[in-house]
Amino acid sequence: MSYAPLNGFIAPAKPTSELWRTVVGFVAAYGLAIFLSSLIAPSIEGPVICERGDETFECYSTAQTLTILYAFGFIAIGVVIATRFIHGRAPLTLLGDLTQLRRDFWIATKALLWLTIALAVIPSGPPVEDATARFVPNVPFSLWLLLLPVSLCAVLVQTSAEEILFRGYLTQQLAARLSSPMVWMGLPAIVFAVGHYSPSIYGESAWMVALWAGVFALVATDLTARTGNLGAAMAFHFINNVKGILLVSLPNETGGLSLFTILAEPTEIEMTGMQLAVELGFLGVSWLAIRVGLRR
Asked: What is the pLDDT of residue 270?
């Protein structure tokens, strides 16, 4: 597989690929999303007090997390409006061929599910004890199962909106104007990484989280360029966030839907160089699994 499919993916963006349009469109889409999100912010109201056995801690309710995740749909709305009125083209062109998108999404999803199962059954040695972090049950299983269809849809909205903005709009517009992968692959990855850099949340590990996010964006962009649609990148993002939002999460804004929570402040959980290497290695293995699946 090569980047030849990228040519068809970016073709609709070429007539209006001026850099000023791209900058204005990106800022307008993101700004509109922030404005619309501010309208529902009062309904979130901040953390609540959760009790899990003998543990009491601040967390977010299932309703709050669902509201936050679905609010990411405002990003997609902003991109649709920018694409239509600033570039004068059909918003569906951001996705690539829809038939191929559906095919690649399911192929990539199945590949990642098989990879997750395989890694789960491979012995990995004794667990490493962490005095600052404890896994505790979060949402009761019966409620978690009842909410699962709505929760999966919420994660799909959140991840798809980000893919449409970064791998759809931004990558398309930049690649249509400038042919160098250093630009259309590197610049969106940098923006994505900067958006995930938050010392107030992750403390001294913030730069490692940002680095991971940047590599994640490079992998997603690579998959988009190799397939000519957002299907594989959407699946890659979706499965990753399902694990971090619906299975095991931190007690933050997106932690109200998970089966288990890590009972510690994010700033207390220090990511070591070894952990970062493992996380980056998993991204690489996931990329390879998707590519193998797409070749069949």
From this structure: 61
